[in-house]
């Protein structure tokens, strides 16, 4: 009955100043960084047994990148492997992560459950091998990768909660629609 925190895509390109910025991304990075610092230092904090992160990790994701993006299925170049944009935002302290899951090398990938460790282990298998039953999700963006990760978490049978105070969404309308969809899937919104 272990609990995991999944920190979704808190990367430079998704924060202010990046190639695909989400308003509030840097603030979310700082708030999650503070939470992780409290947790890893043993201060009073959340009861997580494991903390993992996901990263967009694009080499050549095909039509996912476009010079004329539609911002639905195609996007500007972002999180290209080897660039500063693919790195964790400096407000986020990645030290406490037990593992990082990389997604989207050669195709679009929104859910952290599409990601794999550097050695190739899938997120679902990794969590189950550590007896995780409950998952909290936070990060960027509420209406895209957080949504997809939370929905896949619930579909995989994990009791799932989204920490909206530690998320940033692209737009108010799409964020509200994502929250409604996640609620409808039995995900707790906190």
Automatic annotation (TrEMBL):
Pathway: Cofactor biosynthesis; nicotinate biosynthesis; nicotinate from nicotinamide: step 1/1
Domain Isochorismatase-like: 4-187
Pfam families xref list: Isochorismatase
Entry EC number(s): 3.5.1.19
InterPro entries the UniProt entry points to: Isochorismatase-like_dom, Isochorismatase-like_sf, Isochorismatase_Nicotinamidase
Keywords associated with the record: Hydrolase, Metal-binding, Pyridine nucleotide biosynthesis
Keyword match Cell inner membrane: no
SUPFAM superfamilies found in the cross-reference section: Isochorismatase-like hydrolases
Coiled-coil blocks: none
Homology family: Belongs to the isochorismatase family.
Record protein name field: nicotinamidase
The species this protein was found in: Nocardioides renjunii
Top-level taxonomy: Bacteria, Bacillati, Actinomycetota, Actinomycetes, Propionibacteriales
């Amino acid at each position: 009955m272990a609990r995991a925190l999944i920190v979704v895509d808190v990367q430079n390109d998704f924060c202010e100043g990046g190639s695909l910025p989400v308003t509030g991304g840097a603030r979310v990075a700082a708030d999650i960084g503070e939470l992780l610092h409290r947790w890893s230092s043993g201060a009073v904090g959340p009861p997580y047994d494991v903390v993992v992160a996901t990263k967009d990790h694009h080499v050549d994701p095909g039509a996912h990148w476009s010079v004329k993006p539609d911002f639905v299925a195609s996007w500007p170049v972002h999180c290209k492997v080897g660039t500063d944009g693919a790195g964790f935002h400096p407000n986020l302290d990645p030290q406490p992560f037990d593992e990082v899951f990389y997604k989207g090398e050669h195709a679009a990938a929104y859910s952290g459950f599409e990601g794999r460790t550097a050695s190739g282990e899938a997120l679902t298998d990794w969590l189950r091998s550590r007896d995780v039953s409950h998952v909290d999700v936070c990060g960027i963006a509420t209406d895209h990768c957080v949504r997809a990760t939370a929905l896949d978490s619930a579909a995989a049978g994990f009791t799932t909660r989204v920490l909206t105070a530690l998320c940033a969404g692209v737009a108010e309308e799409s964020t509200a629609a994502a929250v409604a969809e996640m609620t409808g899937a039995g995900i707790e919104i906190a």
